[in-house]
Amino acid sequence: MNNFQDKANFIWGVADDILRGAFKQHEYGDVILPFVVLRRLDCVLEPHKDAVIDAYKKFKDKLQEDQLEPVLIKATSGLNFYNTSKFDLQRLSQDAPSIEINFNNYINGFSKNVYEIIDNFQVEKIKTKLSKNNLLFMLVDRFTEVDLHPNIVSNHDMGYIFEELLRRFSEMSNETAGEHYTPREVIRLMVNLLFAEHTDKLQGKGIIRTVYDPACGTGGMLTIAKEHIEKNINPDLEVVMYGQEINEQTYAIAKSDVLIMGEDAENIKSGTSFSNDGFKGRKFNFMLSNPPFGVSWKKEQDFITEESNDPYGRFHAGLPRVSDGALLFLQHMMSKMEPTGSRIAIIFNGSPLFTGDAGSGESNIRKWIIENDWLEAIVAMPTELFYNTGIATYIFIVTNNKPERRRGEVQLINAVEFSQKMRKSLGNKRNYITDEQIGEITEIYKQFEDGEYCKIFDNEDLGYTKITVERPLTDDGIVQLDSSNKPKPDSKLRDYEKVPLKDDIDAYFEREVKPHVPDAWMDRSKDKVGYEINFTKYFYKYKPLRSLDEIKADILALEGETEGLLKEILD
Known about the structure:
Elements: H1 4-19, H2 28-45, H3 49-59, H4 65-75, H5 89-92, H6 99-108, H7 112-120, H8 123-132, H9 136-143, H10 155-172, H11 184-195, E1 208-213, H12 220-233, E2 238-245, H13 248-260, E3 268-270, E4 286-289, H14 301-308, H15 326-334, E5 343-348, H16 351-354, H17 361-371, E6 375-380, E7 394-399, E8 409-414, E9 420-426, E10 429-432, H18 435-447, E11 454-458, E12 463-470, E13 474-475, E14 478-479, E15 495-500, H19 505-513, E16 521-522, E17 528-531, H20 535-538, H21 548-570
Parallel strand pairs: 1-2, 1-4, 2-3, 4-5, 6-8
Antiparallel strand pairs: 5-7, 6-7, 8-11, 9-10, 12-15, 12-16, 12-17, 13-14
């Protein structure tokens, strides 16, 4: 079991072998994931286990708890967590009759920062049900067979293991398309785009930069961003990770991963980023996120609506429809941009590009971002990249400090063809982006030139004025007049036109509307400016219709095949 897939398969097999019958399939993840974390923690602590126990025995009666903690941390030789119990999963497996009482001793021996993780997994409740079904010892014993020490399984591969298990468990739970996990190659592409033109600003020693994800899941985006900076940009740069996650399980996984990496686990917060912002008032240098698609924010509607009425609030630019809170995440992240400049990479489905007419919440949010020149680029990605949904997705790059050559413009990259078919599908994931393709897309971004896969637009090119076109109300062919002796508008004949911002509205009206409805006029008091991004239109490739000869040849060939098949049947 030397690769992550083997280990993920083994752990999956343990779930199927031991839990079947006693637990429902949708409960498997609740039981297995905390044991994966416990085994990982054990493997990290194992070389220092005896030293911690000795230090604990020596000082437990001499020092107060707050004085004891640094002594025990020192005994771990640099880790920021410990376990004072004489047990770990390996030692628990040597005493089957006392498994429950020993397991309690083991769990209670963890330092506070780990105990909070365990509490979010609701390990006590799981242990009780396992014991009741005589499965606790069996599960502990099987987990001792998998080695998850960082020397064997890197943080990168551990992320893959969690990703694979979460994918399988979420499929069993019938979770919605919004509850998906971000493939590692997609994160690498996001990170590449985020830093591609900004490596020179990250050189030197003593530099500290912050990375934040408001919907961090298991923390994959944060760890990959950190690894990218340290390996490819500047190994001397200190990257501090911050994240918030609403799901208790994935929050616990993210926190344990950060803890094992030697980072400050207090930088990972639980709860919703909207009504319980764990980093209120904080600003960050780099932000990445893959917020859930099409998820309702109705539970927080009162709080969010109230804040939207505050001119200095996060959501003052506009509110999207209650059924989809994706754009709320972007506004939340933008509120955390450093005045000197921050960069954001966020994944959306198609909705934030075009949903909502002029004057709607979505359009007003786009208007606010584009007119402030904060939208730098959008990349259309291949479909069927994600485990739990096959829909089209887009990476938005947003910044409040564009490079000079990009100012006033938006770069659109059509990368829908940049993928390879997977040898074996993983849920809905049938495609993946290769390292070479990540490099190609990044190069297209850096070149910043119009081409087959790239279009550069002025900000105004993405906007339009929605004008109201009125026609007169008539009665038996007689135009009805109002008190000012002007024609009354007929609401049934009312129509609308979208006039590009760069067009003269009067000239457009005379050219496009008047020839068709000579009696029409515009009610300019109802003008609304809107913005939308239509990838299909911008990258449309005309496919000529097939010739009649080709169609005729196909029909004749089909008729021939049908006759041959019929003859075989009759013979």
